[in-house]
Amino acid sequence: MKIAIARGPTCPNCGWDGFDDWWLDKSCRSDGGPVVDFYANLECECGAKFEVTRYHDGETHSVIPGAEA
Length: 69
Description:
Shape: globular
Number of domains: 1
Order of helices and strands: EEEE
């Protein structure tokens, strides 16, 4: 699994972090739980598709499931 941990979505494949207004993406959803703010599925300009989990403290995990690190 490839993962990037940052203050916002960061492509785990190429490191690009210019996902402006990513929370407006139609895949973005909130679980209303005490730990996680949002989940989303994004696609980078490099073609990588990855999952985003944003926690209430602002830490954001961007993961390409099944990709070798």
